[in-house]
Amino acid sequence: MPFMPAPLWKKNLYILWIAQFIAMIAMSACLPFLPLYVRELGVSGLKEAQQWSGLIMAAPFLFSVITAPIWGALGDKYGRKLMVVRAIIGLAVAMALMGFAQNVWQLLLLRIFQGAVSGFIASTLAFVSATTPPRRAGYAIGLLQSTLSAGNIVGALVGGVLSDVIGMRNVFFFVGAMCLISSVIVIAYVVEERVAISERKPSSSVRANFLFAWNTPSLRNILFLIIAAQSAIVFVSPVMPFYLEYLGAPKEYLSTLTGLIVGIVGVFSVIFAPYWGRRNDRKGHVKTLRVAALAVGISTILQSFVPSYEYLFGLRAIIGIFTAAIIPTLYTAFSKNTPTDNRSGMMGLASSASLLGNLMSPSLSGWIASHAGMRWCFAIAGAIMLVVSFSTGKEQTK
Q: How do residues 302-323 score in pLDDT, each as one tens digit?
């Protein structure tokens, strides 16, 4: 049998997987330890540090919620590869500058700047969603989203070790360099069909895309589920280092243990992401989402009852297995119900919904932790995910 070259959409998918994996390693190298960086910048009190950590975590999403649909619509008009390159270079600049922050206010402003100029994950999602055949959308989106978990595995572990050995500031410079490497890979190897761009119908505006999604019940419902699910997934991120410390984790290894706790979710997410993606292509999203959200919700609530940090590892493994299904499943369902010509802009709305969950959740988590206690953060996050499970409606995907 003669050798059959892979189709262009698959080549681009694999290249973007590599590029996004590198970018996620870079981002994850510092994200789990931002709460500790807040302390390094002079915020010493526990309650104040928890509140600032929530704000710092949420800051990039303040502008990303607005800009993601705009970048998506521009991608439909001027080219999706251009948006991917713009996003990763913007991320590189923003992350490197954070290494020079002298106080927590400067860090907050730089995180806001990151959200305004970046959006790399949203841009790659838009590219893949718009160029992949609908019958393979579940596989492609699931595989691409697995980079979030894979990057978290390596990035959290590398960042934990580096921050303990060379200091947090140098980790930010490492992040910037890794993002630049990712941009070079995209520029050199991703190919966007120019004929397809020139023949594309006039793209819809952000307002038109929003109205279309809002007036389509299946799309509107999926957007709300994305917001809720993403909120639950990231709800405990700002308090995790403090929770490990509270549960008796050794202070001298706190960064490394935080990396391990984050990384174990990633390990199981990477292993199971292809399975969930193929399942979505065969059977649709409803049952998958119900089961996965239920498992994550229960496991998250159980984290609020553990007597010591060692018990978290098993629960985090279960969360990793089923978290791999939730957001990719929702993205796939949304993509299959959007018009091809403005799919990049529409997927920008889906990304914006995810970013909105990221924006609301950490700030609320930091406030709850400082006023009611950290265990309540896990209970509330789990309850939100249970709502997602019980709210998943009748199958409506095409």
A: 999 989 888 888 999 999 999 8
* Cα distances (angstroms) measured from residue 328 to each of 4, 47, 124, 250, 292: 29, 35, 13, 35, 12
**Would you say residue 398 lies in a domain?**
no
Cβ distance 269 to 149 under 8 Å? Answer: yes
Token pair in block for residue 306: 């553990």
Distance (Å, rounded) from C-alpha 188 to C-alpha 272? 30
Say if CB 343 and CB 130 are below 8 A apart: yes
Tens digits of residue pLDDT in 229-270: 999 988 887 788 888 888 888 877 777 787 788 778 878 888
Question: What are the tokens at 361?
Answer: 């959740």
Residues 6+ apart with CB under 8 A from 257: 160, 244, 249, 250, 309
pLDDT of residue 163: 75
Tell me the pLDDT tens digit for each residue of 26-38: 777 877 677 778 8
Enter the DSSP assignment of 248: T
Average pLDDT of the chain to the nearest whole number: 82
CATH of the domain at 179: 1.20.1250.20
Please, which contacts does 196-201 make with residues 24 or more away whose CB atoms are closer than 8 Å? 197/79, 200/76, 200/341, 201/341
Report the share of the chain in percent with pLDDT over 70: 93
Please work out, in degrees rounded to the nearest 5, the angle formed at the alpha carbon of residue 325 by the alpha carbons of 82 and 59.
55
Q: Which two tokens stand for residue 211?
A: 């109205």
Structure tokens at 223: 């957007």
Residue 198 in domain: no
Q: Which domain holds residue 238?
A: 8-193+205-391
Both tokens assigned to 55: 């704000």
Instruction: Please give the pLDDT value at position 203.
Output: 55
Which residues, including other chains, have CB under 8 Å from residue 204's CB and lie 6 or more apart? 73, 76, 212, 341, 342, 345
Using alpha carbons, select from 112, 4, 9 the residue that is nearest to residue 57.
112
Q: How many domains does one find in the chain?
A: 1
In a domain, 261, yes or no: yes
